[in-house]
Design brief:
The chain is an alpha+beta fold and about 425 residues long. Among the domains are: about 55-100 and about 180-260, P-loop containing nucleotide triphosphate hydrolases (Rossmann fold, 3-Layer(aba) Sandwich); about 265-395, Distorted Sandwich (Coagulation Factor XIII, Chain A, domain 1), CATH 2.70.50. Helices cover about 25% and strands about 35% of the residues. Strands 10, 12, 14, 15, 18, 21 and 22 form a seven-stranded mixed β-sheet that branches. It has a six-stranded mixed β-sheet with strand order 5-6-7-3-8-9, sandwiched between helices. A three-stranded antiparallel β-sheet has the order 2-1-4. A hairpin with a 4-residue loop joins β14 and β15 (about 330-335). α3 (about 120-130) packs across α4 and α4 (about 135-150) packs across α5.
Length: about 425
């Protein structure tokens, strides 16, 4: 009898994206007037809505055997999270066939499967019931789940009051301990501290050694090398390679390095907003010597270099960079300001290069960059490209030979601070 637990054949997923020109500010009076005109057919100035087809997955085929630990890699937008959502039955595929043999538990984002109004205790039983477990089975694992999550003090508190870290602790503990045959985990573990991440990885290895199957998405190559038995490499919604860990990661990093050096953003790259007045044609991250790289140490400055092609003159434009995490949380908005006052610029027809150096120290994690330019006078976006570039920060910034007794790095930024002391 075959020991294949997941078989994916010709899987494709399509999304329809709507684009509508929006106004920055509309008064309540204007909204009521427009609605009234629309009811009697007098509103002739309604902005047209354009729709765009976007294939997040295209003809994906692969198999996973029982007990495999499959790592899934690829740049942001490659289709990794969409694939996990389809496998978890959260979203339906557009085409293709999926065969799954076994009970699936998934942890795709903070609080997956939790009801915010219920307590931690109630959510443990709720998740167990969703997985098809009896109350007796859940009780037998209950103490182990609570001990692993380290949230005993807050067990009878509604989870809506939990921090994101507490959410992840409990959600992972539930997903991993309620004996699913297949455990699916996205980059959500990046929310937890370093000590908890290490414990989670150890638990996933234990789960696999018990004959259960693990699917794990991560941008941390060293973690994937230590945990996974094989790697699936996605690019543009398609499978580039599925195979041995070292070879597949080597190919991914090699292609990423080539793309990183060029940093080209094709005109047909999906954009959140576009007017045709200008578009970003490239974006790279570089070190202090302006050498393109996507791998930084904690103490290194991160330099962002973008190229903007202007087709129609822009009198007053403002460029912003957004730094986000692998789990979709925005870390920082970087805009051209002087003492908190925006500094819009004029852009004539042609190519313009913009460079900004981040002074704030980013803590170890995977990050993604989005960029947009907008008209300063009304805030309307001209070109907005999301998650166009990835980079990684490693290390904890502690000098060699020094001790780091608490062993945990919290958050994503180490802000500049001024301290003062006084004696009372």
């Amino acid at each position: 009898m075959s020991n294949t637990v997941i078989k994916v054949e010709g899987l494709s997923k399509q999304f329809i994206i709507s684009h509508e020109e929006r106004e920055r500010y509309t008064s309540l009076r204007d909204v009521i007037a427009k609605q009234a005109k629309g009811l009697i057919g007098l509103n002739k100035n309604k902005k047209p809505i354009t729709r765009e087809e976007f294939w997040a997955l295209k003809d994906v085929n692969f198999e996973i055997k029982k007990g495999d630990r499959l790592g899934i890699i690829g740049r942001n937008g490659a289709g990794k999270s969409t694939l996990l959502k389809v496998l978890s039955r959260i979203t339906e595929p557009t085409k293709g066939r999926i065969s799954i043999d076994g009970r699936v538990a998934s942890l795709l984002e903070v609080g997956t499967g939790f009801h915010p109004e219920l307590t931690g205790r109630e959510n443990i039983f709720l998740n167990g019931a969703i997985l098809g477990m009896s109350r007796v089975e859940i009780r037998s694992k209950f103490d182990e789940i609570v001990a692993f999550a380290e949230v005993e003090k807050f067990l009878d508190t509604p989870v809506k009051r939990f921090s994101s870290g507490m959410y992840v602790r409990l959600a992972f503990a539930v997903a991993a301990h309620l004996e699913p045959e297949i455990l699916i985990v996205d980059e959500v573990l990046a929310v937890g501290d370093a000590q908890f991440q290490k414990k989670c990885l150890g638990k996933m290895e234990d789960v696999s050694n018990e004959g259960r199957t693990v699917l794990f998405v991560s941008h941390n190559m060293s973690t994937l090398k230590s945990l996974c038995s094989s790697i699936l490499y996605l690019k543009g919604g398609e499978v580039v390679k599925q195979g041995e860990v070292e070879d597949t990661i080597k190919r991914y990093l090699g292609e990423s390095k080539e793309q990183l050096a060029a940093g080209i953003i094709p005109r047909d790259f999906h954009r959140k907003y576009k007017t045709g007045e200008a578009f970003f044609s490239s974006l790279v991250t570089a070190n202090a010597n302006n050498e393109p790289t996507g791998d930084f140490h904690f103490n290194e400055s991160v330099r962002i270099i973008a190229e903007l092609e202007v087709l129609k003159p822009i009198d007053s434009g403002l460029i912003n960079f957004l730094i986000g995490t692998a789990v979709g949380e925005t870390v920082a908005l970087i805009a051209d300001t002087d003492n908190q006052v925006y500094q819009p610029k004029s852009y004539g027809v042609g190519k313009h290069k913009v460079m900004v150096t981040l002074n704030a120290k980013l803590l170890p994690s995977s990050y993604s960059i989005s960029v947009f330019i907008a008209h300063y006078h009304n805030g309307m976006p001209i070109d907005w490209v999301e998650n166009v570039h990835d980079f990684i920060v490693s290390g904890v910034g502690i000098p060699k030979g020094s001790d780091y007794p608490w062993g945990i790095v919290h958050g994503y930024l180490e802000p500049e601070s001024k301290w003062s002391y006084s004696i009372f």
